[in-house]
């Protein structure tokens, strides 16, 4: 696994701070060091599914906010 410039100790500390689970879903094991592709900053450690999900949303916060509201039923084309 690529370390993205952080040591294993740092990675392990981040994982421990997250309780050993993915920062986003809080269920699956944290295995993937996620970093901002623009700044290189480490954001957290994610499971594989969440890492792929964030990528499929193009790492776009606004798109993901809209998706969250969409799923909660407070936003959508059919919303009345
Ligand atoms: Zn996850």
List keywords for this structure.
80 residues, alpha+beta, His-Me finger endonuclease fold, two-stranded antiparallel ribbon, 3 helices, 11% strand, elongated, binds zinc ion
Distance between the termini: 47 Å
- Second CATH tier, the architecture: 3-Layer(aba) Sandwich
Provide mean pLDDT, rounded.
90
Q: Determine the structural class based on helices, strands and strand pairing.
A: alpha+beta
What is the succession of H and E elements?
HEEHH
Q: Which CATH C-level class is it? A: Alpha Beta
Biggest sheet: strand arrangement? 1-2
Write the CATH homologous superfamily.
Answer: His-Me finger endonucleases
What this model shows, in words?
- With 80 residues, this protein is α+β, with helices and mostly antiparallel strands.
- It has a single domain, classed as His-Me finger endonucleases (His-Me finger endonuclease fold).
- Helix content is 39%, strand content 11%.
- It is built from three helices and two strands; from the N terminus they run H-E-E-H-H.
- The protein has helices at residues 8-17, 48-56, 61-72; strands spanning 32-35, 42-46.
- A two-stranded antiparallel sheet has the order 1-2.
- The longest helix is centred in the last third of the chain and has 12 residues, at 61-72.
- Zinc ion binds next to helix 2.
């Amino acid at each position: 696994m690529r370390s993205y410039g952080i040591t294993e100790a740092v990675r392990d500390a981040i994982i421990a701070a997250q309780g050993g689970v993915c920062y986003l879903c809080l269920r699956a094991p944290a295995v993937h060091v996620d970093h901002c592709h623009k700044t290189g900053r480490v954001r957290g450690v994610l499971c594989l599914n969440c890492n792929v999900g964030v990528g499929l949303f193009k790492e776009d916060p606004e798109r993901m906010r809209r998706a969250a509201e969409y799923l909660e039923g407070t936003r959508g084309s059919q919303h009345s």
